[in-house]
């Protein structure tokens, strides 16, 4: 008999966090009651094959993880939401589903951002999450498929999160999907993929739309879904390098109020009060008060407005900075029910293919399968904060010998966070405010 508290405890101990997003600790999500668990297998960021490779290689573990998540939350139904175009994955999943009760598959269209929690819940269940709300508000919990895999490993195998499935793609010689130690340097990942093929490039941790620019010395975390190499002038990274006060000045002078950003905004189309063109207008009139800007708090920062603005402006970057400013002023958007969805939503969904063209990354699109190879790292840098919440507190000191899977940093008492574990055998050679470095013998 499986005990739901035991699942939650094991998942907490193992440091499982959302593998496909902001790294929200999984034990917190599991410690809620809901009627359905959605396995988020949209993988809607262009060039990513991480989840597809994982499902092809570890389908049993993913489904067992879904079963455990259903058990912990008391959900009567588990739904695997994948894009219709992942036909091989669908076949593999369908073959296995007969061994599981109350699970089914839902096919999503090939649009961006199909994996946004508000969007996926609307697509799969037809339920509208309130503005500023979460899936639980409508009886659902959403977990990425790799998070479910880690839940299975935590509960059934008593193994913590020390490895990460990662796509190494874009402008590289040999694009790969690998399972690598958390804390491994990106430069080593790049070497495994044969190095970059572009002369002037940037590295992205994650997808091209919502990932972040990183350096060769940065490292894999529990939320690294990909390491992408893209040309230096790729949107949206070129616009992110422009200082925010310059972006605000440009918004004041260049926004022509065409409202394309609003017409394509996935949150606006769901019926939310977010209308980015109005925020741009408020800024151009110098209206910087909370009342004029509060709807920016509804922005998911998906970046669609940024890649479609004909004037090269970035409502996303502006919303992100306004959100920060409002947050510091303790301004919050109260949870509000969504009344009606925009009737044009269906025809305004932005196709993934078109997005790839907009980003100028079509040449790098190649299907990538999983390379089942043991990857070793000589040294790992384990970040103390690779999850939502507070940084973990080190429980080791310099000179300590650690084995793979040993806990090296723990959640602060009473705080939101996640434990961190050694991803290789070795010696702790450095500890600072942000990380623990372990070197193999
Ligand atoms: S798409 Fe660009 S120019 Fe058009 S309203 Fe939005 S920010 Fe302004
Ligand atoms: S980033 Fe732009 S398109 Fe995406 S939710 Fe925010 S305003 Fe809408």
UniProtKB/TrEMBL annotation:
Residues 290-319 form the 4Fe-4S ferredoxin-type domain. One of its GO terms (molecular function) is metal ion binding. InterPro entries: 4Fe4S_Fe-S-bd, 4Fe4S_Fe_S_CS, Helical_ferredxn, Ion_transpt_RnfC/RsxC, Nuo51_FMN-bd, Nuo51_FMN-bd_sf, PduS, RnfC_N. One of its GO terms (cellular component) is membrane. It comes from the Bacteria. It holds the Pfam family Complex1_51K. Keywords: 4Fe-4S, Electron transport, Iron, Iron-sulfur, Metal-binding, Repeat, Transport. SUPFAM superfamilies: alpha-helical ferredoxin, Nqo1 FMN-binding domain-like, Nqo1 middle domain-like, Single hybrid motif. PANTHER family: ION-TRANSLOCATING OXIDOREDUCTASE COMPLEX SUBUNIT C. This is Na+-translocating ferredoxin:NAD+ oxidoreductase RNF, RnfC subunit. It comes from Caldanaerovirga acetigignens.
